[in-house]
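Hi, here's the filled form for the chain we discussed.

Project: internal
Contact: R.S.
Residues: 303
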Amino acid sequence: MSGAFTDQFAMLFNTPITLALVILEIFVSVRYHKDYYKVKDTKANLVLGLGYVVVDTASRAAGLVLLSVFYFFGPHVYNDFSGHLVLYWVTLVLAEDFSYWFMHLMDHKIRFLWAGHIHHHSSREFNFSVGLRSAVFEPIEKFLFFIPMAFIGFRPLDIVLVYVFSQGWGTFVHTRMIKKLGPLEYVFTTPSHHRVHHGRNPKYLDKNYGMFLIIWDKIFGTFTPEDPNEPVEFGTVKNLDYKNYADIVFNEYRQIIKDVKKPVSLKEKIRYIFGPPGYNHEGAGKTTRELQVAESLAEPSSY
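And the returned structure, exactly as it came back:
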């Protein structure tokens, strides 16, 4: 995007707002005894957030080159609209939000991708600082999912700009301090929606993937509202006590390697890498689908 609005500007815009939200939430937590924060967990959030920034900075140039190649050689079918600024930006926001939704969906469905995403869910707390606990390798992954947008004619720098601003909203929805947001709940991803996404309760698993808009979840059947009768339990299905920050990031990768080394067929080895998280060839593990089926069978009949 030409002018002052660049991805660097967006990051400078987002940073003080994020820090102000964290400070405000800590104040509310202490003042009203809400217990929103744990020192150890918050330190991990900040360290992993720093790791994200390092990877993002290191991979940014290569990612932009990748998008630029597809932009240059693409058919530019969207060029007819590039002169209509409002249409261009509205369509880009919708296309990018859908691309992120699909990437996020795949992160939860394919174990290898889940291994790079799980540490964002590994906190048992839910506050603004958890929004900084970003998936460390997402800066690399996102460029692969953004290729179709560059290919049809969206400018690479514009794609990155919208992503950075969307991340600002993505941080805002990580809080227990804000309840429901009225009519906004119909269209936008809200804290209530995202609390569900971070829930380890079977009914909340693999729901509400949207970063900015919740419409894709409602269209494709992955939406579940927060149930006032079932408080969200935050974390992962198997909440682990990690040894250090590196263990938080790489633990699931090590588990994949361990599973692949098992004396099983090539087909089973491939499933351990690209199958759903929780898959086990002996049935000892539990995928999201299996957990949700088990819960539905355990519910008392209404008859």
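Let me know if anything looks off before we file it.
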